[in-house]
Amino acid sequence: MTPPDSPVLRVAGRPVGRYVTRPELAERLSPRPCLHPVTTLAGTSVTELSPADHTHHLGVGVAVPDVEGFNFWGGRTYVRDRGPTELADHGAQRHIAFQLRDPDGFVEELRWVAAGAELLRERRTVAATGLTDTAWALDFTFSLTNVTPGPLSIGSPATNGRPGAAYGGFFWRARKEDRAPDVFTPTAEGEPEVHAHRADWLALAGSTWTLVFAGATERTRQDPWFVRTAEYPGVGSSLAYDERVPIAPGDTLVRRVVTVVADGRLDRGGAAALVRKAVRL
To answer: Once rounded to an integer, what is the mean pLDDT over residues 40-62?
Structure first.
């Protein structure tokens, strides 16, 4: 039986993802709700939870390495002039309640807490939609509101002095296989050519599956992609690429990413066609 706080997403009655609201994790992993496993319609898992190479990678979710100096990503913290450092600076995302819950999605409220104080209040909307007999789309929106009396800012290792490491925001830890997945956008291919660049969509193609990520709002499309394929398979949308992102008291930051989850290895034309079906670009 599925725990009551771990809803299962379904497409036409078929389970395609499980959402874990209260993962039992060590503090240094920055505990947070996440989707895992996420599968294709044929049942192939396309996520990993706490893999050996990065135990703080948790399926699909929102992770930020620096919220006003607190680590909501997990693992070590990048410190300028020192490098990755083990610190007691970890925050956690706490599930409050579901405002809406259906077989194909939910609306959730969360608290981002660190050092005993709430920094951000999040409204998360997740929906699963069928596209074809072999593909479906995960629509993921998060809205972060500063609930403190003062300004907050979001940073990344890149803004703290580590070039190329602008991870933080929506993040998908994909299935690791013997061969690294291929990655491409409408105009480029390969990790060096797509990482840290902006593109309307980006595809990650494994042995028998393809994920196609698309920024579903103009503001989201302004964020460059964070991409790893050689070291591990992971894709994110960078909130803080080259400078910190301020959030004034009471203000809200919103991002929306739609991901096509397909059986088979899509080419550029196939990926573009499914993206057009999933979101208007």
So the answer is: 98
